[in-house]
Amino acid sequence: MIPTAHYRDAVCVVTGGLGLIGSNLALALHRAGAHVRIVDALIPQHGGDIRNVTAFLEPDAGDLQIEVGNIADEAVTVPLLDGADFVFNIAGQVSHHESMVDPLRDHDINVRSQLMLLGTIHRVRPTAVVVHTSTRQVYGRPRYLPVDEVHPTVPRDINGVNKLAGEHYHRLYGEIHDLRTVSLRLTNVYGPRQGLLKPGLGFLPVFVSRVLAGQPLSVFGDGQQQRDCLHVDDVVGALALAGSCALAGTVAPGAVFNVGGNESHTLLQIAELMSAVAGTGSPVGLLPWTDELSRIDIGGFRTDSRAASAALGWSPTLELRDGIELTLNFYREHPWYLSST
Q1: Strands of the chain, DSSP E
Q2: Do the Cβ atoms of 232 and 189 come closer than 8 Å?
């Protein structure tokens, strides 16, 4: 998963390192022998949990440091950036709905904080490779499928607008200030260490928590919206490859790549597959759209990841059924994820 030769003894900063993607990446880097420094604000509405890392540390791996703080705070970031070889910038607000309810908060997290962090990196550690997680939400409603990187970016919600702004700042600092930045536009990510009980983290954790309890799964509209879901292990692989390629100079500063699954399913098919794999008897049904949610819905989406495959040597390895089975088994083995305490 992690090319050990590139990361052993490297100093790796992981922002948002206690959430779904960040914790899985931090643990993989730790196992590869990297010196890992995590920073996470542990915002209550988000998916971060210190146990995502501390409960899974392995002995005799690299050292790991956890700092609870904001990436906009130089008192936090400057010490963490000292000697850093890689910055995996995963911190952000991901809820589309919450971004419409409180757009200024979303702007502060996904735009202002990102710009503050980039300015700090440029000033104190300009040699570091910066790998940034963006989102397929920047495209808005697709005009054609599959969606490639030249597709127009017309976001349908505040979160998409702000994530696109943060992505552009990474591009700008790469092109103008010579930072070695790469942004990955991710599709719907799922897997171990995802917060299951907090709203706004996407439909997949809702499905997981409900199916494990044998509760009904509901899909809005006719359920025919396409998605290509991406297991977090494949995301970790893409992040690591992006970092090593940026270090080697084989991708241009400011590069942007789609990173999505190689299978496309409708939301109804995903719900039915999850119910079948879980074997808990969860019925699957349809719900009418609320006016609020229908206004920001993007319809169907399918990713064209050929550019990432060509430039990074990356391709997804887990089919959806296998990824769902691994995910459900993980939460059955760690039932505290389904507890509010």
Answers
A1: 11-15, 35-40, 64-68, 86-89, 129-135, 180-186, 189-190, 217-220, 226-227, 230-231, 255-259, 265-266, 284-287
A2: yes
Cα gap 90→131, rounded to integer Å: 8
Question: Which pair of tokens denotes residue 130?
Answer: 């910066």
| Contact between 111 and 165 (Cβ < 8 Å) | yes
> CA 245, 247, 252, 255 torsion: positive or negative?
positive
pLDDT at 1: 65
Distance, in Å, from the CA atom of 160 to the CA atom of 139, rounded to the nearest integer, reads 8
Phi, psi of 180 (to 5 degrees): -85, 85
Handedness of CA 313, 304, 183, 187 (dihedral sign): negative
Is-contact 259 185, C-beta < 8 A?
yes
Buried b (16+ CB within 10 A) or exposed e, 129-149: bbbbbbbbbbbbebeeebbeb
pLDDT digits (tens, 9 = 90+) for 285-310: 999 888 777 788 888 999 999 999 99
pLDDT in tens, 146-200: 999 999 999 999 999 999 999 999 999 999 999 999 999 999 999 999 999 887 7
How many CB atoms neighbour CB 175 within 10 A?
14
Q: Could you tell me where the beta strands, DSSP code E, fall in 96-173? A: 129-135
Domains of the chain (ranges; CATH) run: 4-194+230-262+302-317 (3.40.50.720)
Task: Indicate the SS3 state at residue 184.
Answer: strand
Give the pTM. Answer: 0.96
pLDDT at 62 over 80: no
Per-residue 3-state assignment (H helix, E strand, C coil) for 196-230:
CCCCCCCHHHHHHHHHHCCCCEEEECCCCCEECCE
